Amino acid sequence: MTKHEFEVAMTCEGCSGAVTRVLNKLGDVKFEIDLPKKLVWIESDKDVQVLMDTLKKCGKEVKYNGTK
């Protein structure tokens, strides 16, 4: 599986909780959230655009940083 890094405009635990909820709905993804650095790493075989669109559902600005 590929590990993708995203920058998400999270400011609090509520934001990271929203990210967790939308990613859990995707299924078959592993992810880590670094709230202080506003980073989310997602391990998935899904298309990057699918991951971006999913992250945007939490209402935050999302930027794709590439694979890690």
Give a verbal description of the structure.
Binds and deliver cytosolic copper to the copper ATPase proteins. May be important in cellular antioxidant defense. InterPro entries: Copper_transport_ATOX1-like (IPR051881), HMA_dom (IPR006121), HMA_dom_sf (IPR036163). GO terms for molecular function: copper chaperone activity; metal ion binding. By secondary structure, this protein is an alpha+beta fold. The chain has one domain (1-65): Alpha-Beta Plaits (2-Layer Sandwich). The protein contains two helices and four strands. It has helices at 13-26, 48-56; strands at 2-8, 30-34, 39-44, 62-67. The protein has a four-stranded antiparallel sheet, with helices on one face. Strand 2 (30-34) and strand 3 form a beta hairpin. The chain is globular, with a radius of gyration of 10 Å. The chain starts with a strand and ends with a strand. The model has no long low-confidence stretch (mean pLDDT 96).
- CA distance, first residue to last residue: 11 Å
Low-pLDDT residue spans? none
Major β-sheet profile: 4 strands, antiparallel
Broad shape: globular
Output the CATH class name: Alpha Beta
What's the CATH architecture name? 2-Layer Sandwich
The succession of helices and strands, N to C, reads: EHEEHE
